[in-house]
Design goal:
The chain folds into two domains: about 240 residues, NADP-dependent oxidoreductase domain (TIM Barrel, Alpha-Beta Barrel), CATH 3.20.20.100; about 70 residues, no CATH class. The protein contains 14 helices and ten strands.
Length: about 350
């Protein structure tokens, strides 16, 4: 499998990374099979997080015997040094290793003060000096913070949502990281499931030599699609550009990316799906949402108390309650038409 240099880390990583958030939803044996197949076919970069429930444990169980041949990136949401080191020690234990290749601050609201002895950047340096961490990274959903991190010279890697839907401002981060020799990791490479053409997504990223997309994999068929693309990379030709432009036309404007930072919802609303279900009905197998269970979940939107939590926590500054109302209206109409056609 083709590899690239991940910025100044000088790590040689497979151009397709394994995003391990989805494996928390499947069993240990299923996850182990996926992880091992990915490794056996040349994927050597695995991204997870302390917040992804048992994802780290599944990586440790499946890949501990090949630890020296893989690159592991994980994350902490800690806001103080004590929690930072507790998370780090837990991650090391779960992953069955004594070091993390890239340890990332997980979507902080602000960059830590590097001169504050009690702030998180000093914790990162301390962990690195102890050999617990090889390189320092940060993830974020806010472009201004991602740019600031890349410009600071303090972070070896930056992880940010990038996809074929990204606008010029977001894509400018690619050139900036190249100039600063910062490794750039692309999360949400399929825009949280809205992009249902893996070949188009793959071709889009293949034009950049300094970006590693981490494909969120839950099913073997999903992994097989990207492994097939690695064997015969699809070209970013005129036909593929037309497909990408069609996606951009259909998904222009404000839409939920499904990051989940709005959760938990006090009314129990499954916001990351509910706030964009009208888009899923256009591109997913819509029958899976035409059930009484999903109708009841969508009707929970009526119980919204306008607490403002989802709006305040949205890194894209969306008016989430209004978006939910619009999607509920669209869902009701779709469900009604579907029921009448049966």
């Amino acid at each position: 499998m083709d590899q690239i240099r991940l910025g100044r880390t000088n790590l040689k990583v497979s151009r397709s990374g394994f995003g391990a958030l989805p494996i928390q939803r499947i069993s240990l044996p299923e996850a182990g099979k996926l992880l091992r197949k990915a490794y056996d076919h040349g994927i050597n970069f695995f991204d997870t997080a302390r917040a992804y429930t048992d994802s780290e444990k599944k990586i440790g169980a499946a890949l501990a015997d090949v630890r020296k041949r893989i690159i592991i990136a994980t994350k902490t949401q800690a806001e103080d040094k004590k929690t930072f080191f507790r998370d780090l020690e837990t991650s090391l234990r779960n992953l069955k290793t004594d070091y993390i290749d890239i340890y990332q601050l997980h979507n902080p609201k602000a960059l830590p003060d590097p001169d504050d002895a009690e702030d998180l950047y000093q914790a990162l340096l301390e962990a690195k000096n102890k050999g617990m961490v090889r390189f320092i990274g940060i993830t974020n959903h806010r472009l201004d913070l991602a740019i600031a991190a890349a410009n600071s010279g303090l972070y070896d890697t930056v992880q940010y949502p990038l996809s074929l839907l990204s606008d010029d401002k977001d894509l400018g981060l690619i050139d900036l990281c190249k100039q600063k020799d910062v490794g750039l990791i692309a999360m949400k490479a399929l825009s949280g499931g809205l992009i249902n053409n893996g070949r188009a997504a793959f071709a889009f990223f293949r034009q950049y030599r300094n970006v590693i997309p981490i494909w969120g994999v839950q099913k073997e068929s999903e992994l097989d699609e990207f492994l097939a693309c690695e064997q015969e990379p699809p070209l970013l030709d005129e036909g593929m550009r037309q497909i990408i432009n069609q996606f951009r036309a259909e998904l222009s404007g404000d839409f939920c990316r499904g990051c989940g930072y709005c959760l938990p919802c006090p009314a129990g609303i499954p916001i990351p799906v509910a706030a964009r279900i009208s888009l899923f009905l256009q591109r997913a197998v819509y029958q899976s949402y035409m059930t009484d269970e999903w109708r009841e979940k969508m009707e929970l939107i009526e119980n919204c108390v306008n607490c403002g939590r989802c709006r305040a926590h949205c890194p894209y500054e969306l008016d989430t309650p209004e978006l939910l109302k619009k999607n509920l209206q669209a869902y009701r109409e779709f469900f009604r038409n579907y029921s009448q056609s049966k």
